Here is the input.
Amino acid sequence: MNDQLERRIASQIEAVRGDPGRLMDVVRGVQAAEGWVSPEAIDRIAAGLRLPRVQVRGVVTFYHYFSARPRGRVDIRLSDCVPCRLAGADRVAAAFERALGVKMGETTHDGHVSLAWTSCIGLCDHGPAALIDGLPFLRLDPAKAEALAGRLLAGAAPRDLVPAVGGSLLDQVRALVPSNVRAEGPVVFGSMERGAGLREGAGDRTDQVIARIKAASLCGRGGAGFPTGLKWAFARQSPGERKVIVCNADEGEPGTFKDRAILVERPGRVIEGMTIAAWAVGAQEGIIYLRGEYDWLKPLVQAEIDARLEAGLLGPDAGGKPGFHFEVRIQSGAGAYVCGEESALIESCEGRRGCPRHRPPFPVQKGYRGLPTVVNNVETFCVAADLMHRGYASVARLGAGQSRGTKLYSVSGDCARPGVWELPFGLTLREFLEVVGGEGAIAVQVGGPSGRLVPPADFEKRLCFEELATGGSMIVLGPGRDLLEVASAFMGFFVEESCGWCVPCRVGNALLKERLDRIRAGQGLPEDLAYLDELGETVKTTSRCGLGQTSPNPVLTALRGFRSTFEARLLRDRDRGRQPDFDLAAALREAERVQGRAPVFHPEEA
Ligand SMILES: Cc1cc2nc3c(=O)[nH]c(=O)nc-3n(C[C@H](O)[C@H](O)[C@H](O)COP(=O)(O)O)c2cc1C
Ligand code: SF4
Here is the structure.
């Protein structure tokens, strides 16, 4: 191993004080500096952190943004998500391929530039979008892609290709990615002085904080809608001197980017909510798990942590509360949707592959490093801070039924006003579409791929926990969109993102996609619909974590809402004898590709 790499790894290990739980940070450092993590680097990291080599290699091979093989010095990753595809990502991919002379997934022959698809990067309102060496490039089109590729091949650094902007850190981050907040509601985006919720609102009695959160019926905004007060109460009751608060900022569900806007526009409120939670449950340590794709906004969040330490809102006697010591650090992810699942997230924070844990015990009992741990969504912490600051009365007048207050939506797809919207709970989907300019929609994907594809017949349903619950992703699909193609793309996402631990999810999703694609290709049989239904339900009920328990939803909800669209693509009985189920020519081409052989004989040429 060369001396430079040796020194680099030693300094990374020193930076985390030799803590093996901080493996992710060490690997990230090596990946960023070297462009890959070589076998020698893996050996050295394992020895330095006193970890089994297999654990280090397991981590390097698990996360999309780590690589055990050399990549180009410049790394282009084009977002492979439905909103970006609707906006023309395929044409952008073709332009990059032409200009670089490589296919997606390849590196230029001089080892300079790598080009690849990557799962949704949270820039769906600015698509087609790409990350180049982690920097965001928005609203790409073929001409822009060719120009970018040309400059990169000529030796320009990605940093030189983003516009230089002066001003504050916030100005610079906003110039990289406009937050695109279309409606600022009073709860998350309303104004609040730094520390107001913690100093006065949270008061002296920790038990009263939880009572107030419970009284407001605050439910988590990360998708599952679990009551926040109950979660905090469980953590408070869990025995132990040391407890942990984790902010889940891993939003990776395609079509979701509301947390991105909150972290840029209101990072203080997120940390305020975390600090209030820590005060209520008796925690000392806070972690913001920030998805690797949002590295470009990390300095802004770090600056807010520093400012709050300076202002006495973090650290010893935080918020003027004697004996209350709370600190927050950022843990960066490295590209793995499953790490949004709270126990997988904790595994990742501890330096392992993001494989979900068996539950119980739940994180509130035994979470990060075995300590009682509260995991909440970015938005949930903001709402908690607002509740402490302004009280429940100001929120209660908004919303419908049990769903009070506001919800943030990430809106993308075929609508006039994509972006982030803070709206009161309880709008019907039809009213929502009018607000965002998506009146002509033929369907809306509510809650991302793990949610449901809602047909026009259900547009009178209300957006709230009781009817149409959503973590926030709203993808509008307009006339002419192929809903089976959309469902297939979502299934491809789950196939890619399954951690592979359990068979129903690892194999079942691939089988669902394969059968769906057969129908798309006009080769499906009527019995395939029952097969999809049955297999989908099996995957849902036998998978270990929320990923597999929801991954068949694109197929199942499309089948329920749009059965005639499937039926129209099926082989009719009279065609059965003539149409082969098996595409021999395609299979031969695939075999030739895998073997690297030249074509010999193709049945369609015979
Ligand atoms: C595959 C998968 C991905 C998830 N991704 C996220 C995420 O990105 N952000 C989030 O807050 N919750 C996510 N969740 C839900 C979390 O496990 C957890 O319920 C949530 O962070 C709790 O916060 P809340 O109660 O404030 O909603 C995900 C769950 C699954 C199964
Ligand atoms: S359901 Fe899928 S993602 Fe979840 S543990 Fe099983 S294989 Fe992993």
